[in-house]
Amino acid sequence: MSEIRYDVTGIGNAIVDVIARAEDDFLVAHGMHKGAMALIDEARAKGIYEAMGPATEISGGSAANTIVGAASLGARAAFIGKVKDDELGRSFGHDIRAAGVAFSTQPAAAGPATARSFIMVTPDGERTMNTYLGAAQDLHPNDIDAGVIAASAITYLEGYLWDPPHAKQAFLKAAKIAHEAKRKVALTLSDAFCVDRYRAEFLDLIRNGTVDLLFANERELHSLYQTGDFDTALVTLRKDTRLAVITRSEKGCVVVAGEKTEAVPAAPIEKVVDATGAGDLFAAGFLVGHARGLDHRTAARLGALAAAEIIQHIGARPETSLKALADASGIRLNGPPESRGFIS
Amino acid sequence: MSEIRYDVTGIGNAIVDVIARAEDDFLVAHGMHKGAMALIDEARAKGIYEAMGPATEISGGSAANTIVGAASLGARAAFIGKVKDDELGRSFGHDIRAAGVAFSTQPAAAGPATARSFIMVTPDGERTMNTYLGAAQDLHPNDIDAGVIAASAITYLEGYLWDPPHAKQAFLKAAKIAHEAKRKVALTLSDAFCVDRYRAEFLDLIRNGTVDLLFANERELHSLYQTGDFDTALVTLRKDTRLAVITRSEKGCVVVAGEKTEAVPAAPIEKVVDATGAGDLFAAGFLVGHARGLDHRTAARLGALAAAEIIQHIGARPETSLKALADASGIRLNGPPESRGFIS
Predict the structure, then answer these.
(1) Which residues of B touch A (CB under 8 A)?
(2) What is the CATH number of domain B6-328?
(3) Tens digits of per-residue pLDDT, A108-139?
(4) Domain extents for chain B?
(5) Which is nearest to B172 in space by CA: B134, B191, B133, B144?
(6) What pTM value is reported for the model?
(7) By the 8 A CB rule, do A146 and A177 touch?
(8) How far is Cα B22 from Cα B35, in angstroms, rounded to an integer?
(9) Which residues of B touch A50 (CB under 8 A)?
(10) What is the ipTM of this complex?
């Protein structure tokens, strides 16, 4: 078996976030579902941008945020995703590399512009997203670097990859390479509306063994099993997965591993400034903890710690070293996983 | 005399800020003067960007920040400055208009890219700037809209305009139009190194009556009069100006009007997150207060309030309504100035 060079590699839509504050009225007036991600075309992107307030641009993308969070925790991390060779695309590349992440996906030379997500942050800190996929639509199976995937303890995939036309094939190719190399595959369901778009396919992935570790929040779990009752959903989830983590905002998370269930509280915070990235950063902490052999409860604590940092400022990329926060909280990471001992 | 339609119009370099956290060591290693603004060429811009950490892009520019602050205080405000018709230029235009500012300078169709300032924020909250002027270099006297200037109670100019080759002529043209329309002209000295580059010309502007209201911080004042002693500088300043406001960071500010001197304290804050824009937003408050006929002390309090908001978060654009903050502090603004009564 080849050597493990990365704790985690993420594959996802490479997006720059364009963040502005907005009142709840603005969401209503523009027909937006609060807290959800909607896909928009170029014309609507133009209309929303013209209507929205002064904005801040920060590199984003769900799996990309997770991977940057993993690097900030001290993990060895890589990312695969498609930008165009334009100003926003160069910003995205700069930011993820400057965060210490290996990123070598070839940018598109022509075609649509780098993807952007217009994020409206309401006074309660909740974020509502409208994403123009642009160049991210051109992620292709050829962009999957087999060497990187085979060398990653965990390959982490976002459900949003079901939206761009070829990314699904890229996703499946990566999962196959990972399993052939005896590595693990993790999936986040991304968004309740995304689950609604691809429910049958996601259930298939989970049940046929493509996914070893599932992340979802309560709304996504309810959407997956089409129920409004958390406990009902857990009964089915327990049968469908070997390991799943359900995040529940301020109520913390629940780790479900076969018959075992552990509830871990959220980390205390002063005020939610911008909820963007809460789930992404939770996943970062859990993935790194898991890759480094921590027990589920401690991995979840690491996730809660990373999520707490991100929601107290604008943007979904850490503003401080998450490793330093983990150290201060007494969570010690083991060294990198041994190639032979990890999948046991 | 024509009607007053704007409380304040700003003319300045139209710049997008690219903000990243950095340690003091980084500044030393890259030969940067902490707290200062250095002009850089395209090659150095590339080198700094490659070396710096993950960044946030927010529209900036000193006078532009001031004008957005004025609009946030409820004033009628306009801005003149040059961007290119590229992604960053369109962001700049979107942001300033979304803040409620009139902005109709024609973007450059060709030539260098929109100006950007790489801003390193050290752990103490101090900001160190490296600016690539790009398209801002092409601001030309033809870009000065005489109708806007004549309709503005105050025209506000930044000392940085001495750097681009034609902007100086634009500056002087605007000052002439303003005075012919019986309006006031304000100048900020911008930066101690900028003062060092253009000391004789700035002294000339101040002494020959081009400038009615001068803003400077302590370092700029010391640079202007080439002294390290504050009181010595004040003696000369008092002779050279009719009205000047010297900001002194946490010590507040001093308003010098002929023989009269008033010290006004800084507004209390919890922690300096990013000092970028402190002087710009102080000027916003003072200018709006002055345009609306408040006494110097109250105008300075309004400035202190706006500065306090800006240094408690990343970026030099307000994240909340400054008018609401002013209302909460009991500072009431009068209605717009009467055309005939203002310059009396």
Answers:
(1) 20-21, 49-50, 52-59, 68, 86-88, 91, 94-96, 98-99, 113, 313-315, 317, 319
(2) 3.40.1190.20
(3) 999 999 999 999 999 999 999 999 999 999 99
(4) 6-328
(5) B144
(6) 0.91
(7) yes
(8) 13
(9) 94
(10) 0.88
